[in-house]
Amino acid sequence: MSNGSEAAEVLERIGAERALGMYTKLVEIRRFEERIHFLFLEGNVPGTVHQYIGQEACAVGVCSALSEGDVIASTHRPHGHAIARGLPMRSIAAELYGRATGTARGKGGSMHLGDLSKGMLPAIATVGDNIPIVAGVALAFRLRHEPRVAVSFFGDGAANEGAFHEGLNCAAVYNLPAVFVCENNLYGASTSIQKVVKVENIADRAASYGMRSDIGDGMDVFDVYERASNAIGAARGNGGPTLLELKTFRYSGHSRRDPNNYMAKEEKSYWKARDPIALCEAALSKCGFLKPKLAAEIQASVAKEVDEAIEFALQSPFPEEQELYDGLYTSIEVPR
Amino acid sequence: MSNGSEAAEVLERIGAERALGMYTKLVEIRRFEERIHFLFLEGNVPGTVHQYIGQEACAVGVCSALSEGDVIASTHRPHGHAIARGLPMRSIAAELYGRATGTARGKGGSMHLGDLSKGMLPAIATVGDNIPIVAGVALAFRLRHEPRVAVSFFGDGAANEGAFHEGLNCAAVYNLPAVFVCENNLYGASTSIQKVVKVENIADRAASYGMRSDIGDGMDVFDVYERASNAIGAARGNGGPTLLELKTFRYSGHSRRDPNNYMAKEEKSYWKARDPIALCEAALSKCGFLKPKLAAEIQASVAKEVDEAIEFALQSPFPEEQELYDGLYTSIEVPR
Amino acid sequence: MRMSIAEGLRFAIDGCMAEDQSVFCLGEDIGVPGGFGGAFTVTLGLESKYRDRIIDTPISEAAIFGMACGAAAMGMRPIADVQYGDFLLCAASQIVNQIAKLRYMSGGAIGLPLVMRAPVGVTGRGAQHSQNLESFFLSCPGIKIVAPSTAYDAVGLMRAAIRDPDPVLVFEHKLLYGSKGARTEKGTFDASSEIPDEYFEVPIGRAQLLRRGDHVTLVGSLLMSHFNMLAAEELAGEGIQCDVVDLRSIWPLDIELLHESVKKTGRIVIVEEGPKQGGVGAEIASGIAELIPDYLLAPIVRVAAPNTPAPFSPPLERAYVPRPSAIARRVRDLMSAS
Amino acid sequence: MRMSIAEGLRFAIDGCMAEDQSVFCLGEDIGVPGGFGGAFTVTLGLESKYRDRIIDTPISEAAIFGMACGAAAMGMRPIADVQYGDFLLCAASQIVNQIAKLRYMSGGAIGLPLVMRAPVGVTGRGAQHSQNLESFFLSCPGIKIVAPSTAYDAVGLMRAAIRDPDPVLVFEHKLLYGSKGARTEKGTFDASSEIPDEYFEVPIGRAQLLRRGDHVTLVGSLLMSHFNMLAAEELAGEGIQCDVVDLRSIWPLDIELLHESVKKTGRIVIVEEGPKQGGVGAEIASGIAELIPDYLLAPIVRVAAPNTPAPFSPPLERAYVPRPSAIARRVRDLMSAS
Ligand SMILES: Cc1ncc(C[n+]2csc(CCOP(=O)(O)OP(=O)(O)O)c2C)c(N)n1
Ligand SMILES: Cc1ncc(C[n+]2csc(CCOP(=O)(O)OP(=O)(O)O)c2C)c(N)n1
Ligand SMILES: [Mg+2]
Ligand SMILES: [Mg+2]
Question: B249 alpha carbon to ligand 4 midpoint, in Å?
Fold first, then answer.
């Protein structure tokens, strides 16, 4: 989508409402994550957090292309996916705070956000492990002849796990309705992808499985949306899976207080100059979908939503100690 | 090596002695395996066996290109590799019979044949697991700046294990002196490769790792030798690893009494028409290295070696019951 | 009808697949025409009946169990298997980190009605095809573990496992299958049973008393239950009467039934095919020692394999696995010391 | 010099790397300039001293441990680590099927002098970053397992592990590292020690008596040893004197020292951070019940986490892990009942 007239065409196709919806989601994720970051540094958020700032266009672009029955799975870095998939921000915040009103009644925490009733499995924080699981979700859809699609989000680092290889190969072999979205943010924790992968693109690995692949601009929500739509459409139409690589960047530390000292300054500034929200804003303004006033309104309403979500979380009760024993088995009590 | 004059050139380069050595090894493996097959069906060999008949050119071609300090690792199907690597046939036979004179004093059995002092790790019967281990062997060579090469033998089926992916990627990333030899015999147990792999060649997967690859005729020992020599030479000269795929076929059942009913008749006869021993014999005869008399002598001497090996095994004592507790830890007794 | 365990498992799987479209099988070499029906013939022939639901996989254990997990989360009822129990370890993260934890991590929102099958037992194949994995997975909250020692139990426990809403790991024993044809196993033990015509379940979490006696409790599972019965017979000739308990379920462990038995006998010998260290026997011994120590007339005895991998050499292997005679000897020693 | 556990481990690794060219480290994010020095700073800075021997890997646990296995078979002394113990399961086949068995399978011909490192402990991260894996690997003959609860032990056990000719699995506790900077861990416990200038080893396979008392034996490892000491202090105020035993080694298990202690006290409370089912506590309890039951004045008690994965929510997590007060309560109950 480098070229202006093409971009305009795409936006026309998408339409103002949907495009503004995406913009709003980008802002929601950014503001939510900024607030969580601040609260975490204050010592207010329990556990650890892996934040999504910088990568918002990936989650939003892909999730905007999904239908209701579709199912996504995320990783240790799931806040953005959860918001993009439409889980209520308040339930997400409550889960981060370990409250009974959280998406998993506080049992899961930041790294296991999810709500299957909203189309998101609990996030899988074991790098790579969600990939075969998503193949299995897609297999269920295939076996039941349901026109549903399963999407796995994972990082560049996950592409070096055995689970990636096995999961992608199986998805290809069974021609499953799945999309494997690799958010290539150039680092797995502190490790540059150049140290651990010798090919230019993770997408190149699709060839090993006879799988379709595509590469998108992970900072451009509309490009992601278009490519995801194609991949999802193909999957739904029995056309099999796609490995969709999105080139992106994380502004936040890998986790906790990580100051990203292993990243070069120029690298950071290069990517920040392509900020997904700024890019989206520019595109929307240019085609007239977004006026400064509307932008301000959206910003304000998101700020309010974030406030309320945090407030809701903080006001919510913790689960009762007795809940420790709930939710493991369906048919029996936890044996003592 | 389809073309006659080229084949002659290759043989010239190899020289009569080495070429006849390879021929002899092919015959050794074939005769040994035939005898073991017979003895197994008689109920005379303990445990289970995975036999190598049909694939002889792979082990012999590759191992003939190795030097003394090099190290190979094999799989559940290791008899051919052990013979090709030069382990004494009698120690191999004794191991199959669980005798104290076996390569592992009877502790390992058919699936764990090996003798590190002769350049062969105990075979690893967990499909795929030898691949990262061989990367580790090569890493040791690299760290110590030794001009040694590590070779992993594995099957087409193993190429779908996560360990293949992780091991090959690491070998590529560290540019290790290793060769990964995939003996593609078209089946993993009863499962046709076409059911479980959507690309034409396993070698195509090397591209995922930025690794060199090559494809050889696994029924033509001299073709295998030439290609293996190149890969091994490159590895030794700091040129990094190669994924070398050899197209081959197993005549024997997968294991035990398997009658191969899942293979089509035509498939079997197609491959048997390209029998590695017959091909080798023809090439050697054509260029004058092998005369019928010499062939008969070799056959006779191999037959004798096989007789003696089996005899040796059967005459050898079993390990003492007490040995159960030996060889687990180096520095302590087995805790009771 | 009389069935072997392999036939019984097939019968149970077949019955459940016929009843419920959501049941399907996933594994290596399980449905190849002309093939094996899995490593031990359990699914033989089912592929022609349920073409789409007997799914041959690549040799990719992590994917097999990962896919089973994902499909089960969507309400399917997968039956995933490995060819040898040892290879569960190739999928250990999927089993322990995902399958066992997913429901809990979701706050109880997700159900995972899936079955995992794994053949175990020390059977002439050396260290990598012989391990008894029961004790590994006993450390893993979130899965149930069963181990049928007869065809009756195989049918009933498999049916219960498939219909169970939670993940169930089924350990099967190579020497008990009674597999036929090219897959016949040397040294096989007859574990066949008369199978009722009507469907039935054997409840998960309940052990079974195989034989009554007042002097000592002998407990084990799979092949060891057969060995315990042989030992008990031998001992009966000498006037020592054993309560022989077959665990049937490794988890939940039916410690109540064991308590009842030990309250009567005052003595317990726990027999395990795998190494003693960190074994299932340790959990049983603890469950007795913690709760009913006062009933013990003699120390608890664990009979198990040495704390080594399985050796290949036949005489070593014979010395490795507890034999009926060794079990009987330990019981005799215990009786004469107390 | 006073050191934290993270510093102590680094000190020991550094010392061994300086002495012996065959020692090298292999893991994720262990040597990236500007990075973490591994998940908990243990290798921080070593990359600038040993450029070639601090090897950053892809996120490929099976390859990390597989490569360590291969390199060790060639006589190198690799130190392989995972960022969280839970991910040992991604490499379980390499660890259990290969590393633990290779020497035995070779008839004793091959040595595998390798070290595996894994942080464990329930520390605010939810079910997949909290598991205590000790009991899994306790079922695995062929590896030794140690667990340092102080910096002194960390130095001495790490040095012993690196120089040991066999595979050693080192469990480290997230709340005991004392890691600094951005990797500081909330809720950290001070486990620092004065470290002698001379190199020393803490022998593998030997437990340590941390505190003497005649009434009850309290045994545990890692964080639980600290909790046991706190409980013992609390109890001492009430006149209950505890023998506190820190396991130091999970395998081989120093059952002799425990026997000695229990012969004196007649009572034992076994404390474990992970779930009770199939835990290390079961092996300890069995080792007491089997061999010295006559010395017991009261039933053996196991205090452990519930048989569930670790929950995330802070109050649930607090209730999940045995606390000093809960340990003290169980001891009190035991004393008053016997
Ligand atoms: C199996 C496994 N190994 C290691 C880790 C520790 N870890 C958590 S996130 C991470 C980096 C992941 O990198 P990538 O896949 O690129 O995702 P990103 O963090 O960049 O979103 C690592 C090593 C883990 N969670 N799971
Ligand atoms: C991890 C693992 N999974 C399954 C098996 C059972 N098994 C043994 S050999 C085999 C087929 C291997 O096929 P391939 O790699 O092509 O080697 P081939 O037998 O053709 O030589 C299988 C599935 C195993 N040994 N290890
Ligand atoms: Mg990344
Ligand atoms: Mg094959």
Answer: 8
